[in-house]
Specification:
This protein has about 210 residues and is of the alpha+beta class. It has 6 helices and 5 strands. The protein has helices at about 5-30, 35-65, 70-80, 105-125, 160-170, 205-210; strands at about 85, 90-95, 135-145, 180-190, 190-200. α4 (about 105-125) packs parallel to α5 (about 160-170).
């Protein structure tokens, strides 16, 4: 990459970092009781800027170093805390935060690319037949210490992209004839998203356990 172009991109990222710093300082000075709406706007702006900065830095790594994209994203998946485990015929994937809202640009890329890489690595190490008739359950877990008004409608979440990625590695087809999608909201110790993938005959047992919990 031309040095002038590289410098221009780095300066642009530095400008984003400065805007992020200003948003964080503003958040730190807000009275939550009196200005909860303003705090919500600032915190959302800061989070999206952070994701945008991370994505832009990733692209700099891909284009200016010899580090392979897959190797970097494998490390990113570990750093984010993406976990994949199988138990009793159910594959459970834990993502480190809530799914992004729709139409927010690069915010989906921040989670989606490491998610895809982690699934590719897992399926190489644990080969298994693709599920033909299945249920994919999205458990949206909100931190119980934060206001419940944060809970969003499922239609406002960018879950279809994550289903498409999971289908490309684990399912025979994500057609509505072969795959049912189920959503549930839970309160927990921290924000996260769990994606549970199972054959249709295991879903009643899974649902019973979740309701009991």
């Amino acid at each position: 990459m031309n040095r002038a172009i590289l410098s221009q991109r780095i300066v642009s990222i530095l400008a984003e970092v400065e805007r992020l710093n200003r948003a964080l300082y503003a958040m730190n000075g807000i009275d939550l009781q009196r200005n909860s709406h303003q705090y919500e706007l600032l915190s959302t702006d800061a989070a999206l800027r952070g994701e945008r900065i991370a994505c832009r830095l990733r692209h700099l790594v891909y284009t200016t170093t010899a580090i392979k994209k897959e190797n970097y994203l494998t490390s990113a998946a570990v750093m984010q805390g993406i976990q994949i485990q199988a138990e009793d015929g159910i594959l459970e994937i834990t993502l480190p935060g809530l799914l992004p809202k729709r139409r927010q640009g690069e915010s989906a890329e921040y989670l989606l690319d490491p998610f895809r890489t982690a699934l590719a690595r897992y399926t190489r190490q644990h080969p298994a037949p693709r599920l033909a008739h299945c249920v994919v359950c999205f458990s949206h877990v909100y931190c119980r210490e934060l206001p419940e008004r944060r809970v969003r409608d499922y239609d406002n979440l960018e879950w279809k992209q994550f289903l498409d990625v999971a289908a490309s590695f684990l399912l025979a087809d994500d057609s509505g004839l072969l795959c049912d999608a189920y959503h549930t909201t839970e309160l927990g110790p921290r924000d996260c998203t769990r994606i549970s993938i199972m054959s249709g005959d295991r879903f009643p047992q899974w649902l019973s356990r979740r309701r009991n919990a």
